[in-house]
Amino acid sequence: MATSSDISDRILEAVMAQKLAPGSRLGEQQLAMLFDCSRTIVREALMRLAARGIVTVSARRGWYVVEPSQDEAREAFEARRVIELGLIRSVKSVDKTGIRQLKAHLSREKAAIKGNDVGARSFLLGDFHVCLAECLGNSLLADTLRDFTARTILIAMLYQSSHDAAQSCEEHVQIVAALEQGKLALAEKLMAQHLGSVQAALKLHATSDPLAKLRDALAPVAKAGKGSAQDLHTSPRKTGRKPASPSDDSSTYLGALL
Fold it and tell me: Are residues 30 and 124 in the same domain?
């Protein structure tokens, strides 16, 4: 029989492998049947994940994987910058054992990229950052990073990231190379650039504008050929009347006021 920890770990792993999309429903009864356990144990697992910001619950929908907003996406990347850059800045060197572990992880990344297992590729690319924190000697922040990495993977799925997996792996290689050479300032700079490129690949608006869709819909009609938007209304019909000047026209487009 699975424990609540087993279930939460499996769900988190599925998120990092992009096998559970944002908004995926997690039914207690279905999970209890799948893991051959009681709904109480499932509920404990889901509550554990809710506290970590991976799932949430509502009276209507039940339990489901979170769908981060654009503001939450920016906050997640900012939190990762603070943690990951701070981790690199706080160490004086990385021992040979840690470098070997990181290189072994990079080998698995490269193999996954060459293969067809998208889930393994996604998981390993995200787990690199967790592995790095562990190799830098901070297991507590490694657990925190695991949750933030899972959230940023959900963000990438939700906001259609165009970041290339091979590029991401190459950036990991450069970071490890800098750490191996003892160039910690360079490693920190490379990590900042890496996180920046991942965030830049998301389709996020610069600012949140609640009126954006309405503003676009009610904007003045674009000119068609040589005629203006007003010509579209006046030219087809010849009424014998002199066309009204813009100052005489009382039917101002609402879009121009927004």
Answer: no
